[in-house]
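Review form for a predicted model. The reviewer records the input and the model, then writes brief findings.
Reviewer: anonymous (R2)
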Amino acid sequence: MAGRKAHTGGPRVVIVGAGFAGLAAVRRLAGRGMDVLLVDRNSYSTFQPLLYQVATAGLAPSDVAYSLRGFVHKRGARFTRGELTGIDQAARVAILADGSKLPYDYLILGTGVAANHFGVPGAAEFTYGLYNRHDAVALRDRLLDGLDWLSKTEHGKGITITIVGGGATGVELAGTLAEVRNLGLPSSYPEIDTGRITVRLMEMAAELLAPFSEGLRGYAYRQLEARGVDVRLGTQISEIRQDGIVLADGEELASELTVWAAGVAGQAEVAGWGLPQGKGGRIETGPDLLVSGQDRILAVGDIALITEQPLPQLAQPALQLGRHAADQVLRLQAGRPLVPFKYHDKGTMATIGRRSAVVQLAVGVRMTGTLAWLCWLALHIVTLLGGRNRVTALVNLAWRYLTWTHGGGMIVGDDPAPAGSSPVQAAGPAEPE
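Model under review:
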């Protein structure tokens, strides 16, 4: 491909996907005598844990994006932009959508996942996802357009925003949307009665935040209810429509804007790679992270399904998987035996809103409230890539939480829909990034 640096010598390692796992593998392998080439469909890496802040106009899209070219250049690796469409296993060549062929000695796949709609009719057509930067921007613009539309309509009309899925993404999005309504709306849209906006969170299981302890799950539920979120647990959806949701028991609920955060699956293009796929279309691997039946192809991150060790699809497992895969490549090259991956659980956290979060550490520590929220904020700022991103994200989040009631806290952008159009007419899924 034009503009791509030449092979620098040493075993060729092609890493596909610039998520947490892929970047961790680059860090580990760069400077170790390997010719490392990172491939991604975008020229930037996205910090997914803060996408909901972009979607609710609290952060700018650039706050969560970092240049991949700068990332690899500083480490002596290479980067090319492209989308993997096929693998010639016999020739050891990765094939991109533009026809480029990338020879490899070792191939690490960390392409991430997409929404899993579980076969629910209408879910793919009439819901928004929150899995990449484009999703977040599309959701933000539709939300702001809906508020503009509501400001020009008679007081009898309202908007219901439904989030499907009670995991961390769903809880964080629902809590922040409720704060946008309760705190941001009176100053930014004084003509809109906050009672005209309903925020609903739906979860099929009996509780929210399944990975957390019972006490933390209960705390999150109470905090959402205190913010005025309509939380519905044990609720199964049979159909999504453009302007509503149909439940399994036949009940129909209005929903002008529906966000799907209920699960993930392997992206469609994975089926064309000729590799074994398991539940949700994810790539099956052994405990050593080698793809089943392969001796030079490894899978990491959310796309990997370790048949004997299912892992939560979170940042920390992805980071550890990326590092371990890189170490396995070094072992293979040196002719040393591989070792199985062992996940070291350091804990997990989620925020519900301003001064409210849950933290669960592996050592048994449990925290809620302001202290947990400050820990969550500090961790996410520190783990952002790039000093500029850390500074701008910190400034924007501080501005949001300090100026909610003074017209602040909302970063606006171009609206792709006609001004004042109905949020029902404008609704639809974001285009793939």
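Findings: The chain is about 30% helix and 25% strand.
Further findings: The CA atoms of residues 47 and 159 lie 29 Å apart.
Recommendation: see findings above.
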